[in-house]
Write a structure and sequence with these properties.
Blueprint (H helix, E strand, L loop, with lengths): L18 H12 L11 H15 L17 H10 L6 H12 L5 H13 L7 H6 L16 H19 L16 E5 L4 E5 L3 H11 L4 E3 L5 E3 L10 H38 L1
Antiparallel strand pairs: 1-2, 3-4
Helix pairs in contact: 2-8, 3-4
Length: 275
Amino acid sequence: MICPKSASESTSTGGIYTLTDLMLVCMFSYMSEHTILQERSQQEKEALFAALDAFVNCGIPAAQRADEHRPDNLRDLQLFRLQNPQFFPQDFYDQSEMLARAGKDNYFDWYKRLLRAVWEGRDAENKRLAVLLGLENAGYYGPLGGDFQREAGENMAIFSSLASLWSNTEAGVDLAAHQLFSAHIAPDWQGEELRYRPAIEFQEAVYALMRESWRARLCNCGRYIIAAKPKTTYCSTGCNGKARAKQERDRVRWHSDGKAQRAERKRKKKEAGQK
């Protein structure tokens, strides 16, 4: 799981870029299309998107937005796990369910809140994206987290909850072994490139969407969608129909109100001219 780094590792570098910073810059600037994604067929890629779509929308009513932080129902988590058993590792699901049963926040929900923030464009510094891709540990953004401060605090609270629950079990658990699922950037001398290698399917799906970020949309109903075409703006024909009906009502109202307003302006202008 996600283990916060020590305070010494979170101190300022005084403006000097770390190796991690440089690797992130290289990845987003120079990484070619020749990654693990090329090894998947289009059908497999769409399956990844389908799982990511189900995940980001899991447990939230259509009208509810991400920043309301409502914990998912345990049943929603279990249903997603049943339908997408390989999307996250089994221990990730196990620990999230254990915390959900105890009525506590968990990493399943926490990852989802990070993804929604990225989806909505609320990740200007790409900190949340780096954590989702497995390129950075959330603890790194602790004291110096800026707009990531809240999420860093939530991460540490979840980790503390896990530690507390584990301490009450007979089986000993090595907390240091539960780290973020770290992806890798592999250098390729012959190919003259850096290649992103995800550790889990979830990271692969997030990376695939990042490569086509235009597809990440928000429907008027509040649902997160992965658009198939650039013109797609609604999650269903139902939402599309409602939007068109509203546009028609607004058009009729504009013509009706506009006629009355023009008549009123004309009357006032006439009265002013008489004076």
